[in-house]
């Protein structure tokens, strides 16, 4: 058999040494394992980066049913969410910040639905688009802390409680303030954040200003959405399960931090 040349999305040796402990849910020599775990992970990264369908995975990668079954195990165990938490801490420390943030930014983006996700799609009147909303919380460096997927007709302010609860869970109750846009205005959203000891601060456009405006703090989450847009599988909502769409976002942000090499701070 000819030697496989590999793809740009393939994990490097150093990256694999870091991620393997998070992904080995059973022993490497377990009898039910028929395919190399690293090859399966490479196939998953290929799919998320290129946006291809499961059945269109190249033949030099493990068969798509095997990749999907392993992905489902990783997804249900939230492996990439746990990995992201550790990578985020490392990135913050290397940037001279505290390991856990005291401030976050909340926002959402609407993703066009497809026949696969259409059953849970909603219509976003502001964006004039039918699909799903991905509500996120990022730290002030743009690293993902929490993500929730809802139909696009769900208001942003309605997810404040769930986002703030998750943020405090993953940070150990360190977050004190959350910056948001005018879509989160209202006493209900303010109260939902206060329940979790977070001060919700609305950053509005200057009075009389129309069109795009680069707002303090708020630009960070927009950049994070730009990072996510580099992964074609996230360009539209191709997923039947909201959990899949959510965990693919964590995989994308894990891939970005791995590429930066922040995990090397753990090397002796």
Automatic annotation (TrEMBL):
Q: Which GO terms describe its biological process?
A: DNA transposition
Q: What is this protein called?
A: Transposase
Q: Which InterPro entries match?
A: IS402-like_dom, Transposase_11
NCBIfam families per UniProt: transpos_IS5_3
Q: Which domain of life is it from?
A: Bacteria
Question: What does UniProt list as this organism's lineage?
Answer: Bacteria, Pseudomonadati, Bacteroidota, Cytophagia, Cytophagales
Q: Which Pfam families match?
A: DDE_Tnp_1 (PF01609), DUF4096 (PF13340)
GO molecular function, a single term = DNA binding
* Insertion element IS402-like domain residues: 11-83
Q: Which residues form the Transposase IS4-like domain?
A: 100-256
């Amino acid at each position: 058999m000819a030697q496989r040349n590999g793809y740009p999305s393939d994990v490097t040796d150093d990256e694999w040494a870091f991620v393997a402990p998070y992904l080995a849910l059973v022993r490497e020599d377990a009898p039910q394992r028929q395919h190399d775990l690293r090859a399966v992970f490479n196939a998953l990264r290929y799919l998320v980066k290129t946006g291809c369908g499961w059945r269109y995975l190249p033949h030099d990668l493990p068969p798509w049913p095997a990749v999907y079954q392993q992905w489902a195990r990783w997804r249900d165990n939230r492996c990439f969410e746990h990995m992201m938490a550790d990578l985020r801490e490392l990135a913050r420390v290397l940037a001279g910040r505290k390991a856990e943030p005291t401030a976050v930014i909340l926002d959402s983006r609407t993703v066009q639905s497809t026949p696969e996700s259409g059953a849970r799609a909603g219509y976003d009147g502001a964006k004039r688009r039918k699909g799903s909303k991905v509500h996120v919380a990022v730290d002030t460096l743009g690293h993902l802390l929490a993500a929730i997927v809802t139909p696009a007709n769900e208001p942003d302010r309605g997810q404040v409680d769930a986002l703030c609860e998750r943020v405090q869970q993953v940070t150990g109750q360190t977050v004190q303030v959350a910056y948001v846009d005018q879509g989160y205005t209202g006493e209900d959203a303010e109260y939902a954040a206060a329940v979790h000891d977070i001060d919700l601060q609305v950053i509005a456009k200057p009075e009389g200003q129309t069109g795009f405006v680069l707002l303090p703090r708020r630009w960070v989450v927009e950049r994070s959405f730009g990072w996510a847009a580099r992964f074609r599988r996230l360009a539209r909502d191709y997923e039947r399960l909201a959990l899949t769409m959510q965990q693919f976002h964590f995989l994308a942000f894990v891939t970005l931090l791995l590429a930066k090499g922040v995990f090397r701070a753990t090397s002796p």
